[in-house]
Structure formats: structure tokens, C-alpha cells
Amino acid sequence: MLDNHTPKELHNTTIVFDVEGGLLRSSSLFPYFMLVAFEGGGVLRGLVLFLCYPLVCSLRKELGLKIMVFICFFGIKKDNFRIGRSVLPKLFLEDIGLEGFEVVMRCGRKVGLSELPSVMVEGFLKDYLGVDCVIGRDLKVVFGYFVGLMDDVTTTRSKSSLINDVFGERKVDCHLIGFGCSNKNLDHQLFSHCKEIYLVSKAEKKRWRALPRDKYPKPLIFHDGRIAFKPTFLGTLVMIIWVPFGFWLCLLRMIIALSFPYNMSIPVLSFIGMGGRVYDHSVDKNNVKKNKKDPIKGTGKGTLYVCNHRTLLDPIYISMAIMKPLTAVTYSLSRISEVVSPLILETYHLSRNKEKDSKMMEMLLSQGDLVVCPEGTTCREPYLLRFSPLFAEVSNDIVPIALDAKVCMFYGTTASGFKFLDPVFFLLNPVGFYDVKILQKLESVNICKQSRIEIANQVQKQIAEALGFQCTNLTRKDKYMILAGNEGVV
């Protein structure tokens, strides 16, 4: 497709493509609306959408779409709606067909047309695919709240306004190419300006491959939301059936973790779905064993375990991996989690005051072993955020630990939701899994020769290599500005 055009011609060409027909592999819009309903409106709204979907399928496509929009958006405050930029991009990227993506990306200027509301697709198309102009459906707003109604395709914008948005100061008669699906009506007025229109059949789309992560124009580092799978209708049904059983299983897992010693709780938790693997790459394993019995004896100071941050349960899994109690320090902890955490693990909240935090960590190290997550916040994708160098200023006895957590139904982290529910959602999964890799202890000779920032970067790189992750210079502030529109102050 487009083989009859030279690269130079395509560079000066504008492609007008149908997002649902020419870019996405799936023809069902239900998963996207379920994420909007559940993440933006709550469990009850998601349940209403699920119950109404059989009715939606029996109606005309346009009417069914309007019903789903009404259920998902009615009463949602416009200024608080960030699902289109924080939650939906992950699902959209995973649904892109490689073949359709290659056609779209070959052209210099890209215009995306969608039957979905603009607030659902604009962030994904502009932020992650570099689309120049997105034309979707406008939602009606009253007193700052969506009322669940959207404009018709033909009345969304006037022809002159539409042409001005797409072309700007460019000439309207520039070369335009249209791209869409043959089983979908391309009745948008922009397609009437196209000199060529390429169509892909439904049978061809079924053979499309998923877009590999390494071909994303912009890497997906941050995303929010609780649902960790594509919420198709059947997948959502399984989730609804599971949750009542999962709630009691979550309570059982908590009781076992709190009541049983490690040598008993670990096999029992593994049997009921909370498993893990431990890889010990430390040099002196005999020393580790001695430290398990008496971490203070000999040195007068405990070991500082430095790990990347996946969930609030990181310190607990590390404690289980090395089979000894630890004290944890964290940069962010909700009020409720701060009250509950001592029941599971002794936890202290860092104040972000360098001198005060250094003294507290030194005091805690004098009492025993300590674990810290210098990223300051969690990251779900295979990336590491910038490490704070504070840990390198309080101890020379540093052991890096690489962590990776896998879930199948719910994420145990959130940027915009209730953070005190993070452990609950993780334990609510049918299966949750942790990889814990104990890496080589930093050599004291090298620590003395390096600056604290260099040590922090070294530990970050060491953990990233162990996990196959990539290092970034992004911080907690960057994450929360992208996902929640604030600086992440708890």
C-alpha cells in the first residue's frame, strides 16, 4: 500500500485516516468505554454499562454508541477527566495494527478521524503517535460537567472551520490520501477532498499483527487505572464473577501474611496465588546468612537494601526473600496506609528534608536493616525513574535489589485513585507474582571514590540491567503531572 509513491512525495502528503477502521485491529469499542466508566465513574457506572451492553448490540451502531457515551460521561466533571491521557493510551497502543500503523506513519502530515469523543482519543493520537490534527466528536458541557450527549458527525464543525483546523495556512488543494476500512462508511466530509482513498478489508485486518513496543513513536512509561487487562465483555464478566471470591481470598492472604512466620506463610501464599521467585546474585552468600541471624553484630550498623519501586508490598517481598524482618522508609504514604503499615512492616515516612531524613535513616540503620525505594514512586512499565542519591549519603553497606511485579486483573498502584487500596487491589488478583533479584553488594572502595549522585546512577543502572529495563531521568513529579495534573503531594 502506497508503494506507487516515493518517500519524498509521501513526506509532502497529508493522510486522512479513520482511527477505528484504519488503525485499530479490534472493531469493538466496549473495552474503551468500560475503562472510562470504571476508572472515571466508579464501579456502579461500569456495572450499568456492562448490563446495558447486550441492548447496545441490538441497536443501530450510532444509537448504541450514543447510549454508551451517555452512561460513561453523564455527570463527569470536564476539568477532572484525564482518562483519555492517563488510562486509554495503553489500551489503544496495544490494539494498533502494525500494518495500518506503517501506512499512516509513512505520510508527512497525519489527520485522524474518529467516531469516539475527542477527549477519549486526542491524547493518545497526539501524544504517542504525533498526529497533527484529531477530529472526533464533541461532548456537550453544562456548568463544567459532561451531560453525556455528543454532536452528530455532520454538525460537529462547519466545513470552513474544519478545513482551517486541518490545513491552517496550507493550500487546501495539497495532495490528500484517505485510509480506512472497506466495511465502514467513510461519510466524513474530509474524505471528499482526498485524491486517493485506500481501503483495507475486514479479512485483512484479522491478519494484522500487534504493534511491537519497540516501534512505539513515543515510549509508554506512565499510565493509570486499576484494570490490568483488556476489559472485553467476556473479560468484564469474569472480573465481576471473580471479585466476590477475590475479596475473601484477599482477606485470607492478609491474615496469613500477618499471622504466620515466613517459613510457613511463603509456601501457603504461593499455593493460593501469591507467588514469587528469588535470585541471589550476591557475592558473599555466607555473609548474607550471618546477617539473617544478627544484622547488627560486627558492624554496629545494618545493611541498606536499595530497590526499585513496583508496589507498596515491595519491602514485604524483600523481607520474605531474605527471610528476616526489615524496616522500610518511603517517600509517599497515604494517611490510612501510614496507620495500617506497622501491622505488616515497620514503616517510616520521609519528609523530603535532606538533613532530617538522613538523620532518621542513620538512626534506623543503627537499629537494624533498612530498605528504601529511591525512585520515590512506582512505575508499572519496564523503566526506572531517577534515583534520589540520599541513600548513598547514609551508608556504605549497600545491597541493590531488583524487583518486578506481575498481575493479571488489577494494578496495585494508582496516581489518581485511593492509594490506601493499593495493597488490596494487588491481593485481589487471582494470581500475583514477584521476581526478587538480590544483586552484588557495592564495594566500599568504589563507594569512597564516587560522588553520591554517581552511586545512585550506578545502582539504578545495575538494577535496570538485571531486569532488562531502561533508565530514565523522570521523577515522581513528572509522573503525577502527566497522570493526575498535580505534583503528587500526599
Automatic annotation (TrEMBL):
GO terms for cellular component: membrane. Residues 303-406 form the Phospholipid/glycerol acyltransferase domain. It is found in: Membrane. Keywords: Acyltransferase, Membrane, Transferase, Transmembrane, Transmembrane helix. It is a multi-pass membrane protein. Its main location: membrane. One of its GO terms (molecular function) is glycerol-3-phosphate 2-O-acyltransferase activity. The keyword Acyltransferase applies. One of its GO terms (biological process) is cutin biosynthetic process. The keyword Aminoacyl-tRNA synthetase does not apply. It comes from the Eukaryota. The chain crosses the membrane at residues 32-56, 233-256. InterPro entries: HAD_RAM2/GPAT1-8, Plipid/glycerol_acylTrfase. Belongs to the GPAT/DAPAT family. This is Phospholipid/glycerol acyltransferase.
